[in-house]
Design brief:
about 500 residues, alpha/beta, 2 domains, 5 strands
């Protein structure tokens, strides 16, 4: 016991790191590839093989940093999808570390900081997204570190901190447009400014200069994207998800309450009511930390309500980075409650009351995702509806086997997204497989090219998403001459993934 106490400061962080990797790597490939994952993974694969395509993500208006990081992991994995998911795994680890430093800086309590990191490890929202090849875990880590360095800057006023802050925010902006909030929220750090200091005027001028340096550096990094002729597509893509002001002003509050309803339900679904009660309870303890707690709350409220006001097409993942400061608030409250509970048994009970729903959700996320009590929107995207790649693994295996017998032709429903990218990721270098991905919209009759090719070689076609003439999602129109190779019915009603052979009825 004496040994454990002596080296607790070393053992505890190492234990958290091991625990983190156990939760993130267990069954990491069990969830099938998802539409956006297929896009990002294929982009990284293309850019890895041809540096001229390093900005390939701009073709769809997406910033490139996640793609670049996925490229770095690809030489170390056989499965390209795993490379993308490992970006999120290590981004989440960076968030764990960032939360430790952020909580320590705010409340000067290392035990509380360890508890905050532990919360993140078991946070269902993080557990889902740290295991998926999407941008959002990376955005979350830049959010934590931006907030931490902004706090350091306002407290210590050092030029090097301004430089580091500019780089961190700039990298966030190279990841996703939502990182602009890290600049918008920079003035909020003035809540911790020593306004009663005798040198306050001089210090404030210094902060303004350093904050300006950070803003300039962040925008200089982002300026790299302006060197590409495809830069303009970013604004076009943003307009798909967020109302431009000229559109929003015509109906400023039409979608506010429906957006708030959706966002709140997702927040409750991932954070749970007991945990959100902890966030509220944080403001009942130790008013001397009131400014710190208000700062954390602002980092949630400002982007959350901005998304509710301007959101056009929204998903749960958009609020992941906003919820991280709430973890710190909840940690503060729970730590105070644990301190007030004198007996070990009572402390355990208090801990479980507020976290048991996390553990239940985590168990199903890791072992049986379809039963995980997470927002239905995410479950549909990742598993039960057409964006999910249920069936892709079986298709790749089947086609690889057939390609050993000779040349084959594969058509896909769709020209961008899960199809054809999920097949191209694994089959692009197989010379016996021709993947044709220019079939959209699907009509009552099969394309002439497909019929002609089917007379010369085995020809297959994948159906998986809604089309105007399909009687059932994921099934071929009745007049197509097809034979079913295999068909997988997803959990959502009338949703199928089907591989057909063309040329026989």
């Amino acid at each position: 016991m004496g040994f454990l106490k002596k080296y607790a400061q070393v053992i505890a962080p190492l234990f958290l790191i091991v625990l983190y990797f156990i939760t993130r790597l267990t069954n990491i490939l069990a969830l099938p590839i998802f539409t956006d994952e297929a896009i990002y993974t294929r982009w990284a694969q293309i850019a890895k093989n041809d540096a001229a395509w390093l900005f390939i993500s701009l073709t769809d208006g997406k910033q490139p940093l996640f793609i670049w990081m996925a490229i770095l992991f690809m030489p170390f994995t056989k499965d390209p999808l795993l490379a993308g998911r490992l970006v999120s795994v290590f981004a989440g680890l960076s968030t764990v570390v960032g939360l430790y430093f952020l909580t320590t800086e705010l409340f000067n309590n290392k035990k509380m900081a360890l508890l905050a990191s532990l919360f993140y490890i078991f946070y269902p929202f993080a557990l889902v997204y740290d295991r998926i090849a999407l941008y959002d875990s990376l955005v979350a880590t830049f959010a934590v570190w931006s907030l931490y360095i902004e706090i350091l800057l306002v407290k210590r006023l050092k030029f090097i901190l301004a430089v580091v802050l500019g780089v961190v925010i700039g990298l966030g902006m190279l990841t996703k447009t939502s990182a602009d909030f890290f600049l918008v929220l920079l003035p909020a750090s003035l809540l911790l400014f020593p306004f009663k200091d005798k040198m306050q005027n001089k210090k404030f001028r210094k902060w303004v200069v350093f904050a300006g340096v950070a803003v300039v550096l962040a925008n200089l990094l982002y300026f790299l994207l302006r060197l590409s002729p495809l830069y303009y597509i970013i604004n076009q893509k943003n307009a798909v998800f967020i109302y431009p002001f000229k559109e929003w002003i015509q109906h400023p509050f039409t979608y506010l309450f429906s957006n708030l309803s959706g966002l709140t339900s997702w927040l409750l679904g991932y954070m749970t009511i007991p945990f959100l009660l902890l966030v509220l309870t944080a403001f009942l303890f130790k008013q001397k930390f009131l400014r710190e707690k208000i700062l954390l709350l602002l980092w949630f409220i400002v982007p959350f309500f901005a998304l509710a006001v301007f959101g056009k097409l929204i998903y749960p993942r958009f609020i992941l980075f906003m919820t991280i400061p709430l973890l710190v608030l909840a940690t503060f409250a729970l730590y105070q409650l644990l301190q007030a509970a004198r007996y070990k048994v009572l402390q355990v009970l208090v801990f479980l009351v507020f976290t048991i729903l996390f553990f239940k959700t985590d168990y199903f996320i890791l072992t049986n995702f379809s039963k995980a009590p997470i927002p239905q929107t995410d479950k549909e995207q990742f598993l039960t509806d057409w964006p999910s790649g249920v069936g892709v693994k079986e298709t790749v295996s089947f086609l690889e086997k057939k390609a050993k017998e000779g040349k084959i032709y594969v058509g896909t429903e769709g020209t961008f997204g899960l199809m054809p990218y999920s097949l191209e990721i694994y089959l692009h270098d197989n010379k016996n497989i021709k993947i044709a991905s220019f079939f959209w919209e699907i009509s009552d009759y099969p394309p002439k090219e497909v019929i002609e090719v089917s007379k010369k070689m085995p020809t297959y076609f994948v159906f998986y998403e809604p089309c105007s003439v399909c009687k059932v999602t994921g099934k071929a129109p009745p007049l197509w001459p097809v034979k079913t190779i295999f068909q997988i019915q997803k959990e959502k009603k009338d949703t199928f993934y089907t591989l057909y052979q063309i040329g026989s009825k």
